[in-house]
Amino acid sequence: MVEVFAGRTLLNKDGDFVDSEEALRNKVVGIYFSAGWCPPCRDFTPILCDFYTDLVEESDPPAQFEIVFVSSDKSSEDMVEYYHDMHGDWLALPWTDDYKHELKQRYKITAVPKLVIVKENGDVITDKGRKQIRDRGLACFRSWLDAAEIFQNFKG
């Protein structure tokens, strides 16, 4: 049960709406709080893209990992531009969805960028995803997966 985004509709890079429960089922989820106006975000996003590509797009089978971008951009247009120009092929919470405020409160987000790694039910595995990716690269995914308590098909 994907409780953290239950009942929410997410967006993919093509602008299509995606059912969150289907997209996030049996996966470790990285909630990426970020904004295009933020230089540290623009610095980390390409690193996250490489991490995601290696894990999800170039692994066989793909790693059980998905990212949901939660924007702190000033407008929907700014979010869409940043998402399309810099982000990987992951999902996003629509800018108009006020649930982003609840998420920021729940995960105590006071600054961006912040990558919170959660279990399917929304429990935090780590709120230091950005630091762990910078320090450990792909190796950190294995510890997240072990903590997530999901059925694993990941061999890496």
From TrEMBL:
What processes does the entry annotate via GO biological process terms? photoreceptor cell maintenance; sensory perception of smell; visual perception
Domain Thioredoxin, first and last residues per copy: 1-150
Q: Which InterPro entries match?
A: RdCVF2, Thioredoxin-like_fold, Thioredoxin-like_sf, Thioredoxin_domain
Signal peptide span: none
This chain's protein is named Nucleoredoxin like 2
Question: Which organism was this protein described from?
Answer: Seriola lalandi dorsalis
Q: What is the lineage of its organism?
A: Eukaryota, Metazoa, Chordata, Craniata, Vertebrata
